[in-house]
Specification:
Blueprint: E1 10-12, E2 17-21, E3 27-37, E4 40-48, E5 56-64, H1 70-88, H2 92-106, E6 117-118, E7 132-133, E8 150-160, E9 167-177, H3 186-191, E10 194-203, H4 206-221, H5 224-227, H6 236-243, E11 258-261, H7 262-270, E12 273-276, E13 281-282, H8 284-290, H9 296-310
Parallel strand pairs: 8-12, 10-13
Antiparallel strand pairs: 1-2, 2-3, 3-4, 4-5, 6-7, 8-9, 9-10, 10-11
Helix pairs in contact: 1-2, 4-9
Length: 328
């Protein structure tokens, strides 16, 4: 679920509106309107949504001598915001709101305090444009990675470094190829002779590790890594270090990348097995049963579905599984 302060607007050039689509499909529309009030002609921003009570909010920001041509002012305003957004790396609609605030103050339609706050609107569903205290980490226009990096996420079996015959579980890992760039293809990766690997999550069960890898990949490509302005100027590899299990406070361990090269890298590609002494496993199915309050039967069904999805051979039922007693 997207946090409300990350919900950003997309511009529709056909009708000069900005739209925020919420996770549940709920839609909020920002548009421009020309108002005639008390012998004044005002240009205003309008926030509109659907509910059973008040469903719009207006913010007048510019006085006009005549109504004709107000769309041209809007076109110029949008063009200025679109030019400013990539230059200053600030969300486009926030740039437009900044212009509206500045004009409102100049026209004595609002107090200077408004320019010290973030966002603008107080009513309706919350999003990145909701009025609140100014945040120095403003919603960004794009992610500026210092380095062009090539990385992948995967899952590997883990055995004890002291006793390789003792299996510990499974790891969701990131593998980074320092000599390659993000646009490198699978052939480039297959030819790479050097890489470094970082543990992201430790799991008892292979299915849980696969599920974690999927969620972590979504986090990196679509989730908070690209949505959160705190990460906007970080390398992907630095963000991976931040979310690594080795970085957790309770583990008190600095994340260290394992360097793989030559024959060692080729062997890992053929048979992904890692040897570990530091081991901090999660039991996802126990968490679902005890913390998420799901029934053991439901958890077993989810596990079976995931195993089928990942092509993993089923494990025997646990002793407390309700399916253990089923006579087929």
């Amino acid at each position: 679920m997207t946090e409300w302060w990350y919900r950003r607007a997309e511009y529709n050039q056909d009708d000069q509106t900005y739209t925020v689509l919420h996770d549940d499909g709920y839609r909020v529309t920002y548009s421009f309107v020309c108002l005639e009030e008390d012998d004044e002609i005002l240009l205003a921003l309008q926030k509109k949504w659907e509910d059973d009570s008040q469903n719009f909010e207006l913010y007048p920001f510019r006085k006009l001598e005549k109504a004709e041509g107000w769309q041209d002012i809007v076109t110029e305003m949008v063009a200025r915001a679109q030019a400013t957004a990539p230059e200053e790396n600030v969300d486009e609609f926030l740039c437009l709101i900044d212009i509206a605030k500045r004009w409102a103050v100049e026209a004595d339609l609002d107090d200077e305090l408004v320019e010290e706050m973030e966002g603008l609107f107080e009513a309706g569903p919350a999003d990145a444009y909701t009025y609140r205290m100014y945040d120095p980490d403003r919603l960004h226009h794009h992610v500026e990675r210092p380095d062009d990096e090539c990385w992948q996420l995967g899952v590997a079996r883990v055995v004890s470094a002291d006793d390789p015959t003792r299996e510990l579980g499974w790891v969701s890992y990131a593998i980074h190829y320092p000599e390659l760039v993000a646009s490198s293809d699978e052939n480039d990766i297959a030819r790479a002779n050097q890489a470094r690997l970082l543990d992201l999550e430790h799991h008892i069960d292979e299915v849980a590790a696969q599920v974690a890898a999927l969620h972590l990949d979504k986090f990196m490509r679509q989730g908070s890594r690209v949505q959160d302005p705190e990460y906007a100027y970080m390398n992907d590899t630095f963000v991976l270090e931040c979310i690594s299990v080795l970085s957790h406070d309770e583990n008190d361990h600095n994340p260290t990348w394992q360097v793989l090269s030559g024959d060692e890298l080729r062997a890992f590609r053929e048979k992904p097995v890692l040897h570990r002494r530091e081991w901090y496993p999660r039991d996802l199915f126990r968490e679902l049963t005890e913390e998420a309050k799901l029934s053991p039967g439901h958890v077993d069904q989810m596990a079976a579905m995931w195993r089928d999805l990942f092509g993993i051979k089923p494990h025997p039922f646990k002793e407390d599984s309700p399916f253990e007693e089923v006579d087929l």
